[in-house]
TrEMBL record:
The keyword Transmembrane does not apply. One of its GO terms (biological process) is lipid catabolic process. Residues 1-21 form the signal peptide. One of its GO terms (molecular function) is triacylglycerol lipase activity. Gene3D superfamilies: alpha/beta hydrolase. Pfam families: LIP (PF03583). It comes from Stachybotrys elegans. Keywords: Hydrolase, Signal. This is Alpha/Beta hydrolase protein.
């Protein structure tokens, strides 16, 4: 064979060395999961052929996007050291300093590590949690160590397979982690307890306490502390937390938990499109069935005396069981619930909606109208259809009324929606983060006696084009290329 030009050989080495001997496949050859619901599963929900097909397709999409296979078979998630049963929150249990990115779709010029560390559930139980660390090529501003940001992802799903650290695009890609790392921050991103690492050291199931924001706030705080312990001297001794949606609630939760946790180096939190009122969101959008299906196990983990049959109809219970069996993440959950609601299924018990469990849960997981530590930047898109902006506005006003000394700044992004708000305000987070790290470097003490710092503003009126001309939610995903000819 004649010599292959060096640049082409380099492209081909990205895939298989035998690539020139193989028959090329169309791009979809990496979307190859063969998942199929069983007859029993289809019967348990009386799914139509269309509904079953759609759930299969969604599950194949999710499983084809695993970078390192199942978290139940990847020893990184299943083999924990013995100190996992007693090491205190914030300690590192396991370090994979170099994670091969050949099966991920991360941005060029970034590097990846994974850790397992100790966190605490809502009631303070120790729990092992996985996280990834995304490293910049050049620390921000040319600093000698990378300023550390703890990222809290938006909803990815409810079960261990939904841990972003084994998903090819790390979940939310350029909306959060890639952009932060490309801007020079090191990003530690918790999977949240119950996503990623599937079981406690004693072998029992870790239930993801979905939308229990103080619990995922713990996960964000202790991820930062553990990352610093895993890479001594390579990360800034200070850190900030940034999260979106579920992770926005978690970031606000971190600010609340920090009052007690006092994790060293905490600089403040950015909560973008935060969940502050999970039940309220369901009520506003007439989607309480959806809310209760997704938080059912979270509630069970908090109230051991509660049973699924108190919350859900038999169809609802079978839905939760199916989600466990299939390890449903967002795509499967949304596809299945759309199909069930279209078939007029009732999933939750309406008498449960006003039960004492709900009001108790709301008190336990509330992050607004609570004392928080440090500066808090809240951002929400005015046109958000997933979490109404009015709920965040109310949470901000309630917090400022009750705790007027909260160092809270609220920015409303006109014309922006749930995900576009993250992209629209990237420059604002970078400026805010730079100010926090700069204050820390200059040892500027923020006075904590200052009276109300609550500032509310709206951006977007100066946009170069009319607001209705801007793109809203993404209509693409990052597709893994197995062959050299597939890269665009
Ligand atoms: C599916 O694609 C992955 C690459 O994404 C590849 O490693 C694996 O061998 C493929 N499996 C099958 C059954 O083709
Ligand atoms: C199952 O769904 C079909 C329509 O697809 C309906 O005719 C039938 O009554 C349903 N069975 C049960 C047990 O709900
Ligand atoms: C736990 O054990 C692992 C493996 O021996 C070790 O790498 C890690 O540093 C230990 N962590 C703590 C907090 O003791
Ligand atoms: C605390 O919560 C965990 C789950 O996070 C549960 O297993 C445990 O029983 C709870 N303990 C108490 C005292 O409620
Ligand atoms: C669901 O209910 C609506 C409104 O009552 C009705 O129009 C529709 O035909 C029902 N769909 C099914 C699949 O039964």
């Amino acid at each position: 064979m004649a010599a292959i030009p060096r640049f082409l050989a380099a492209c081909m080495a990205m895939a298989s060395p035998l690539v020139y001997a193989q028959l090329l496949q169309p791009q979809t050859n990496t979307w190859n999961s063969t998942f199929s619901l069983t007859e029993e599963q289809i019967a348990s929900l009386n799914l139509s052929a269309t509904a079953a097909n759609n759930i299969n397709i969604a599950a194949r999409f999710e499983q084809s996007n695993w970078a390192t296979g199942s978290v139940f078979t990847d020893p990184f998630y299943t083999h924990l050291p013995t100190n996992a049963s007693w090491a205190p929150a914030g300690s590192v249990l396991k370090v994979e300093a170099f994670t091969s990115t050949s099966t991920y779709t991360i941005s060029p010029a970034l590097a990846l590590s994974r850790i397992v560390y100790q966190s605490k559930t809502l009631n303070g139980t120790l729990v092992p949690v996985s996280a990834f660390i995304l490293w910049p090529y050049r620390p921000r501003g040319g600093a000698s160590v990378s300023p550390l940001v703890s990222w809290g992802h938006g909803t990815s799903g409810l079960t261990p397979e939904c841990g972003p650290s084994h998903v090819r695009n790390l979940w939310q890609q350029f909306a959060g982690p890639y952009s932060l790392a490309l801007a020079g921050y090191a990003v530690v991103a918790t999977d949240y307890a119950g996503l990623g690492v599937p079981v406690y050291p004693d072998g029992s199931e870790i239930i993801h306490q979905y939308l229990a924001s103080p619990a995922s706030g713990n996960d964000m705080l202790y991820a930062a502390q553990a990352a610093q312990a895993a890479f001594p001297g390579e990360l800034s001794p200070n850190f900030a937390v940034v999260g979106h949606s579920q992770g926005g609630g978690a970031a606000w939760g971190a600010a609340r938990q920090q009052v007690e946790a006092q994790v060293p180096g905490y600089l403040g939190a950015i909560a973008v499109a935060p969940v502050t009122d999970a039940i309220g969101t369901g009520r506003e959008s007439g989607a309480l069935d959806y809310s209760f299906i997704t938080i059912a196990k979270s509630l069970l983990s908090i109230f051991p005396s509660l049973s699924l049959s108190q919350m859900l109809t038999s169809t609802g219970i079978n839905t939760v069981r199916l989600f466990d069996q299939v390890q449903a993440c967002n795509s499967v959950i949304n596809t299945a619930i759309i199909q069930l609601l279209a078939a007029n299924a009732t999933l939750s018990r309406h008498e449960f909606w006003d039960s004492i469990y709900i009001s108790t849960w709301e008190d336990l997981v509330r992050v607004s109208e609570e004392e928080t530590e440090g500066p808090l930047l809240v951002i929400h898109g005015v046109d958000d259809a997933v979490i109404p902006e009015a709920l965040t506005f109310a949470a901000v006003r309630g917090t400022c009324d009750k705790f007027p000394r909260t160092q809270l700044q609220y920015i409303r992004a006109a014309g922006m929606t749930h995900t576009s708000t993250l992209y629209a305000t990237q420059q604002i987070w970078f400026e805010w983060l730079d100010a926090r790290f700069d204050e820390a470097a200059r040892r500027v003490r923020r006075p904590n006696h200052k009276s109300c710092e609550c500032k509310i503003s709206t951006i977007g009126s100066q946009s170069p084009r009319p607001l209705d001309q801007y793109r809203h939610e993404p209509n693409y995903y990052l597709m893994f290329a197995l062959d050299f000819y597939q890269v665009a």
